[in-house]
Amino acid sequence: MVATREAGGVSRRLWTRKEYERMGEVGTIGPEERTELIDGVIYRMAPLRSQGASTIHIARDVLAQAFGAGTYVRIQAPIVLGDFSEPEPDLAVVEGAVRDHLDYHPTTALLVVEVSDTTVAFDRRVKGRLYAAAGLPEYWILNLQRNQLEVHRDPSPTGYQSVTILKRRDTVCPLARPDASISVADLLP
């Protein structure tokens, strides 16, 4: 258990990743609950709307083709980012094969992607800072509200130093696969 001192003498209880996983094992957090642990705080995930779910699968297919052999694309599966964070990005491109992670979650990714409709501000501020502080080289937000792709690069402890907004007519080359040119229109619904 870890507690931090807040303003006015009130402290907040933070959860470790091991405690969080144990809650799932014993049923404190049920399998039907969609949650993730970020910086010791357990967040309820927003309900997945039909357009968001479809976009996740569309983007998964595009990314799997662009990255090819030696990688795979995880869908809404945990990645371990330290003792206090186990987020579940909508998509994470990781090296290796699915069977490489039967006994543990990956601790890094070549690219993480959030498909955002109602959670854009949270995904930019909270998740963006988390992924950058963990040193993940590239983070994309498929912003369904604005029909655009936000490309976040150059991680630092306080966030990504480079953000590029791309529209449907644009293309993007992932840092880990600079020879793969992806049409933004192919990623969006």
Write the layout of secondary structure elements.
Elements: E1 2-5, E2 11-14, H1 17-26, E3 35-38, E4 41-44, H2 50-67, E5 71-75, E6 91-95, E7 111-116, H3 120-133, E8 138-143, E9 148-156, E10 159-166, E11 171-172, E12 182-183, H4 184-187
Parallel strand pairs: 7-8
Antiparallel strand pairs: 1-2, 3-4, 5-6, 6-7, 8-9, 9-10, 11-12
List keywords for this structure.
189 residues; 6-stranded mixed sheet; 31% strand
Tell me about this structure:
With 189 residues, this protein is an alpha+beta fold. It has a single domain (46-187), classed as tt1808, chain A (Alpha-Beta Complex), CATH 3.90.1570.10. Helices cover 24% and strands 31% of the residues. The protein contains 4 helices and 12 strands. The strands form 4 sheets. Strands 5-6-7-8-9-10 form a 6-stranded mixed sheet. It has a two-stranded antiparallel ribbon with strand order 1-2. A hairpin with a 2-residue loop joins strand 3 and strand 4. The longest helix has 18 residues, at 50-67. 28% of the residues are buried.
The SS-based structural class is: alpha+beta
The helical percent reads 10-25%
How is the CATH topology named? tt1808, chain A
Number of domains: 1
Number of helices: 4
Count all strands and give the number. 12
Order of strands, main sheet, comes to: 5-6-7-8-9-10
Order of helices and strands: EEHEEHEEEHEEEEEH
The CATH class is Alpha Beta
Summarize it:
This protein has four helices and twelve strands. The protein is α+β, with helices and mostly antiparallel strands and 189 residues long.
